């Protein structure tokens, strides 16, 4: 065997492995991404509870009250001790 034959790249080794790796990554998905439920949406009470957990409206505790900054249904913000319990345990680790 000559040295030129030893230095030739072999074909077919990395291509299928890369294809398999990309396929596995795409199949695993993301845990935090929720798929939409078109056929059977969640009840209204559960949707409101989720909206209260991820409250996007401004709080009155850090500064002056923001009058009219929150919709009628969310006129009272979640108290700070309850907000602290809603944070997942893994988000507070250091």
Write a concise synopsis of the structure shown.
The protein is mostly helical and 94 residues long. The chain has a domain of 44 residues. Helix content is 39%, strand content 0%.
Architecture overview:
With 94 residues, this protein is an all-alpha fold. It has a domain at 44-58 and 66-94. 39% of the residues lie in helices and 0% in strands. The protein is elongated.
Which series of helices and strands comes N to C? Answer: HHHH
How many strands in all? 0
- Determine the structural class based on helices, strands and strand pairing: mainly alpha
Helix-residue proportion: 25-40%
> Mind describing the biggest β-sheet?
none
Question: Helix and strand layout, with pairings?
Answer:
Elements: H1 3-7, H2 14-28, H3 44-53, H4 80-86
């Amino acid at each position: 065997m000559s040295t030129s034959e030893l230095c030739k790249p072999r074909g077919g080794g990395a291509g299928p492995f890369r294809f398999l790796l990309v396929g596995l990554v795409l199949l695993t998905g993301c845990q935090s991404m929720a798929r939409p439920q078109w056929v059977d949406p969640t009840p209204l009470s559960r949707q409101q509870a989720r909206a209260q957990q991820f409250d996007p409206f401004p709080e009155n505790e850090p500064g002056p009250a923001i009058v009219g900054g929150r919709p009628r249904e969310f006129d009272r913000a979640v108290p700070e001790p309850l907000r602290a319990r809603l944070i997942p345990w893994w988000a507070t680790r250091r």
